[in-house]
Amino acid sequence: MKKIILFLVLATLCIPSLVKAQEAKEIDYSADRNIQDEKYPGAFVLSKVENQVYFKHEGIEVWCDLAIHYKEENFFRAFGNVRMQQGDTVKLNSSYAEYNGNSQFAFASGDVVMKRPQTTLESDSLFFDRLKQQAYYRSGGKVIDTGGVITSNIGRYYMEQDKYSFVSDVVLTNPEYVINSEQLDFYGKTGHAYLYGPSTIESETSTVYCERGFYDTRGDTGYFVKNSRIDYNNRTVKGDSLYFNRNTNFASATNNIRVIDTINKSVVTGHYAEVFRDKDSVFITKRAVAASVQDNDSLFIHGDTIMITGKPEKRIIRGFYDVRLFKSDMSGKSDSVHINQETGLTKMINLNSGPVSSVDKKRSPVLWSGLSQMTGDTIHLQSNTKTEQLDSMRVFNNAFLIQKDTIEGYNQVKGMDLVGLFEDNELYQVDINKNTETLYYSRNNDQELIGINKTLSSSIKILFENREIQDIYYYQNVDGNLTPEEDFPLNVRELIGFNWRGDERLLSKEDLFKGKPEPELVKIEGIALPEEEGEFFDERDEGDEMLLNDKSRLKPEDLQNKVKDSIPQLKESPQIIKEKSEEAKKTVKDSISKKVPTPLIKPENSQKDNKNEAEDDEGN
């Protein structure tokens, strides 16, 4: 038993050493020239003659013109035409690089270019953690993809996910649009971009704003949530969520929608909308309401569905099914409505083309102005396009005017057609033609009832004052008389076709939805916040091995998390590299003449396999 315990203790003590030994596999290398230089104690100076200096370690290969290799510390610095390659998926070029075999951490600077199958990253400096399989820059960088070019101050690349995370002054530039964002996560394989924080997508024809969104840079479609909106030349679309297709110039919005017409001063609201930019049209449903300004007063139109089509100067508004209108001095209902903003003509239409039944009476157009109710098969309202005030109205077929008497009963006028005239948006005259019939409660100046007048004639003119009937004039073939109230039977006090609908009258904007259930809103499928990945430079305990090496040209504070900065650029200029290379060649010649052997280590799959590629680089 004691032997077993002793074995376990020794094994426990040895395992970390074994693991460390495995992690610290020695870097293999080969070089045409290999010398020791007193300027670099404990290092070999490796240089190119015909073939570049070559390193290999744990699946990564490095080529360069000149290197300082600290063999005991498993660390090297590489100069001139540096190339790193990890498998077939990561290729990195730079002027300068460092690599620590113990931590598998690399640093590159000077015209850094990292290529992946779908993307190319360019920066002045780049950190590469091979254990995490992550690359990082914080001094400005650029990623080139088929969907555009992305620049940012800070960038982090996750190789296993093929994902870039850009932060601070992020700009994606495409020939068709430009994206600006606080943070943009981009997936190289798919071209999908996720936007976080205030973000815009601007093009010649539209601007999208959101504070959380998704955009397919290759398919040119997007989905946006949180304070999202789309601005067109003359229209703004807002909603809890927006879908956008640049290829078809189509957008849709869901829940709490506002479509604002900036030219015609109108707003359409609802809970689902579709916008077709090329046709300059909007389709909106689910509690749809169109509101426009007329003579400093708002006209509200509600229907199951509202469609707005045409250019601003020729815009048409259509409402379908149980349409309701409300204005401070007027309200109405109809099956559908058609508004031509160019001509100022509003048509209230009954979609039922058959005979009017008792049920269909509720669907026929009705208009209330003051105490007056007007109905008919079709009602037209004509506005002055300049003053935006009502000029006239016309009721076609089965025109019926009813005004509730101030005390009792209903004043009634019916005929084939009705024409109403307005002044300052007040109805002041009504003319009814063809087979007219009236039933009127006649009163004296003290509002005492004199009698009930029932009259037939060819046409009638009615004058209003303060929205009440003041005078009635009968023309041609007049047949009627004034009958005392007590002598006028109750069962004939309503003309044929009488249909008082005062209980349907809209008294406020809220009555637009009276009797209608609240719509069931679609649950918005949101976009999750980015995952917390932790800092690129992990907090390291005192005594932990350095990510690079104390021979690195970077200071320990350079390997700490910080905001945007500028990594010190390569001090060794190409001329100095050339001089060092020439100096190395001369030293080797001297060594050969003195018959001093030059150390050389040949790894497996050595430089011979890469000779042609190295020669190409040397030629460049």
Question: Mind explaining what this structure looks like?
Answer:
Mean pLDDT is 82; it is low at 1-22, 354-359, 566-576 and 591-620. The protein is mainly beta and 620 residues long. Strand 2 and strand 3 (44-47) form a beta hairpin. The protein is rod-shaped. It has a 36-stranded antiparallel β-sheet that branches. The longest helix is centred in the N-terminal third of the chain and has 22 residues, at 2-23. The chain starts with a helix and ends with a helix. It contains 3 helices and 36 strands. The protein has helices at 2-23, 574-593, 611-619; strands at 28-30, 33-36, 44-47, 53-57, 60-64, 66-70, 75-86, 90-100, 105-115, 120-129, 134-137, 141-145, 148-152, 154-158, 163-173, 178-187, 192-202, 207-216, 221-231, 235-245, 250-261, 266-276, 281-294, 297-309, 316-327, 330-340, 345-349, 366-369, 372-375, 378-383, 390-404, 410-423, 426-443, 449-465, 468-475, 479-483. Among the domains are: 2-132 and 536-619, lipopolysaccharide transport protein A fold (Sandwich); 329-504, lipopolysaccharide transport protein A fold.
Task: Please supply descriptive tags for the structure shown above.
36-stranded antiparallel β-sheet; mainly beta; lipopolysaccharide transport protein A fold; disordered C terminus; 8% helix; rod-shaped; 620 residues
